[in-house]
Amino acid sequence: MSVRIDDVDRKILAELQRDASQSLDDIAKAVGSSKTPVWNRIRKLREAGVVGQQTVVLDAEALGFEACFFVLIRTSEHEADWQAKFLQALRDRPEVQEAHRLAGDIDYILKVRVKNARAYDAFYQALISEVRVHNVTALLSMEEIKSTTMLPLET
């Protein structure tokens, strides 16, 4: 479903990205509207797939997940069966926060969040025992400089 997004919709989306837990009254006040039209717009945006699942952002380090690895994967396998097995292996592992198929030299990049290097090794050993990969390079993030889920909406 395609939906037209106007300036008020963009303001509503910006407010939802900033804090989805705020009340309809607060969102309506921030965008200069009343509650019912804001609710109708949010419902329309949800139905169109513009607004997806709402979650809570947890502090990984506060919960003991101190190591973030970016894992570069090259494979010589490109058959549908291998790809389905690989993608299922990624979906089955909660340590994988993001997975992207790339154009270029590297086939896949994963963002993997674990408690420490030993936990990463357990993840790595489990993954390569399940699916064959040609080459894996793991890069440890020394410092997270910026992390956001917010899109740069222009209002």
Automatic annotation (TrEMBL):
SUPFAM superfamilies: Dimeric alpha+beta barrel, Winged helix' DNA-binding domain. It comes from the Bacteria. One of its GO terms (biological process) is response to amino acid. One of its GO terms (cellular component) is cytosol. SMART domains: HTH_ASNC (SM00344). Residues 5-66 form the HTH asnC-type domain. Coiled coil: none annotated. GO terms for molecular function: sequence-specific DNA binding. Keywords: DNA-binding, Transcription, Transcription regulation. PANTHER family: DNA-BINDING TRANSCRIPTIONAL ACTIVATOR DECR, LEUCINE-RESPONSIVE REGULATORY PROTEIN. This is ArsR family transcriptional regulator. The lineage of its organism: Bacteria, Pseudomonadati, Pseudomonadota, Alphaproteobacteria, Rhodobacterales.
